[in-house]
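#lab-general

N.A. 3:47 PM
ok so I finally got the sequence cleaned up, no stray characters, all 160 residues accounted for. can someone with queue access submit it? mine expired

B.Y. 3:52 PM
send it over

N.A. 3:53 PM
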Amino acid sequence: MGPTDDAMDDVQAFVAIGANLGDARATVLEAMDRLDRLPRTRVTARSSLYRSAPVDAGGPDFINAVVALRTGLAPRALLAEMQRLETEAGRERPFRHAPRTLDLDLLRHGDAVLDDPVLTLPHPRMEERAFVLRPLAEIAPALVDPARLARVADQRIERL
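B.Y. 4:20 PM
back already:
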């Protein structure tokens, strides 16, 4: 089976979690638990929570985190489950970069490289965002180039 099929061998994936509406901290923690309960998926590492200023968006500060997963779900199947969790958390998409109750971004899925209208892997903007790189570096330092981390040092973010 290829990486676009519904089932595959267990791989490591990374998901960025963010929220800036409602009780964002509780939402991020609940999302970690809900990701751990997805079919054929378990959370293997959780970063600390971080507070960050919105990037390319308005609204209140975000609460962010990154989790590592082991999953038997293929990339698009995992994405569909993540979008279901966003919807169940009340996520609406009135405009690009709108404030959100829950935002889940699939950063990496094993060694999958995809670029289509539905999913791009690795995530195309993850290395431009401190709110992704800082928590990712906490749980998977080998995946974060220190030079890229230095390039986002001007973005406001604090570990909670």
